[in-house]
Amino acid sequence: MPEIKVDPQFKWVLTKRSFGVGRNGYAQASFKDKTKALHRIVWALANKCKYNEVPWLDHINRDRLDNRIANLRPASPCLNANNRSRNSGSVVKRRGGRHEASVNFRRKNHYIGSYSDSEQARAACLGVKTVLCIVESALCGLTNAR
After folding, report:
1. pLDDT, position 109
2. Which of 38, 45, 55, 113 is deepest in the core (most CB within 10 A)?
3. What is the model's pTM?
């Protein structure tokens, strides 16, 4: 079984319950015939809140088994989805050799611009998408959403 990472003060949680890795790749525990996500349990313990009060969380380093507090942050669904390499936007090479960049945000495609190479276009997509998601997180009342 892969290594499940938690902060030292929460290691005891792993000995109290039956833990495993779910089909979605997240560490999970069984509680009274219900499955709970370990990252949400750890966040609730660290922030002294109830499990059902835990906000949407993002694993900063994309490792679903790394449940250390330093690797977790509150995030909107947009910011969480943006923390995946395949979700950074699209780049299309046109006839003139230029690369057109665009991002999809809230089900609308937004044209960013035309660039001389694909790396510039990809960087523009990622930058715009990140800013849009941080703004959305702020509007949702989430802090530390960077």
Report:
1. 85
2. 38
3. 0.64
